[in-house]
Amino acid sequence: MSGGFRSRARGNQDPERGEQPSGGFRSRSAGQSGSGDRREQPRGQRRRPEERRDSDRRDARRSRPQGQQDRRRDERRDRRRDNRPPRFRPYAGVDAARSVSFDVLRAVTVDEAFANLVLPKQLAAAGLSGRDAAFATELTYGTLRTQGVLDAVIDSLSSRGVDTLAPEVLVALRMGIYQVLYTRVDAYAAVDTAVNLVKDAGHPRAGGFVNGILRNVVRGGHGLVEDLRPAGELARVAFDHAHPEWIAASFARVLGMQDLPAALEADSARPTVHLAARPGEMGAEELAAMTGGEVGTFSPYAVYLPGGSPGDIEAVRQGMAHVQDEGSQLIARALVEADVDGADAGRWVDLCAGPGGKTALIGALAAIDGARVDAVELQPHRAALVEKACADLPVTVHVADGRVSGLAPGVDRVLVDAPCSGLGALRRRPEARWRKQESDIADLVVLQEELLRAAIRLTRPGGVVVYSTCSPDLRETRGVVDKVLATGAVVEQDAHGFVPGGENLGEELSVQLWPHRHGTDAMFFAVLRVTDPSRV
Predict the structure, then answer these.
(1) Which helix (H) or strand (E) holds 397?
(2) pLDDT confidence of 8, banded at 50, 70, 90?
């Protein structure tokens, strides 16, 4: 193996912000978001013909006009947001837990769905709970997390290569190899069910191929993986922790090699659910007592939920709390508490507001301070989520491009929670690490800088702009901030004080959080005081 992993599929570039779109401060319960597997055709017939391989599909997508590509992408998003429950039946000779996992992984592979949205609906449709649901969850997420290693094993044992395999065959192989190498389930049960999956999914002639590959894995065991480890230190660490090498390199540029393994390992740990108590309605202590949770370490609004479904919590249903990573809460707090020169007239803006978690917290604080928030969001469906999250709060939602929002200048405080690569939230979407492409970052950086410049032009002299990303990549963080600082339009304030008791926040004035250090997503934020907005 030449080192590192290839990213096999291009994913939806929707930013991952560590907060649930359905959450927020509101007076009514939000509906569930996510997607189900809408099977409108028999198994084995609902996708493209069997002979159509992954590489052919990618070539076909590239040849489509841009408008058609955009339309198909939007249709996939609509399917993921569809609230209709999926239909379910187990595959012949396969238990319900593995059948659910297979359906979810196929949706992730073929439809570019997100497992954290599809899996709960599939579990409910199958009526799984307890140990069966736990097994289906671990099999799904574990297979996605280790996908690069699993594909390397397949490539080493087959002359055909993963790019030539039908999606159903590839998914069954990944599931089988994961069970053999990373779980304690009976190896031959893993082999037999994988063979049955491909047969009942419309590929009966592939059963022998799958059987042969998996029996070789049973014989070779972990020695197969050991033989595939690359020679270079960075590539080896990336391989050992199942990350593309370019992502490991991005983290290493910030952390150094010594801390890199812990950071990559944290991406494979299940994140604790964080709640934000609504300021003025409920304190963190009261919310913790109600939920049996633990008061957060850094944010005065944060509660760590010990388990269970957040949607079942009365405070969440009543709009007095919502799901939000503690790092995101700190960013909202920094915007509201940063010092401004002169009187704060109460004109606040969230320039990239969707899906609304930060906006809701800012809006609750604005209600206390007598301020108003203009929330700008480009995508109409995300703007609707902002409106839902901010019902009964002093927030006005505008469907507009943040670069040309149409808002009048002279604003006191602006948040730019910029669209980004989402590398800081990989633990929330295990498939994301394999979908992302390093080549995407250059375009994102251009957009991020344009949004930050637009925010500065909106802000009055003496006002504050907070720039944040859910990515630790230096090109998206310090690279963007330093370019704007060079114009002389802003000066940077020390942001470390907005993380009370926080350590290892970075050597710069900005803050860089990490899952393995702070228990949050890898959020970045910088606090900038505007001196001369005309200079950008």
Answers:
(1) strand 395-399
(2) very low
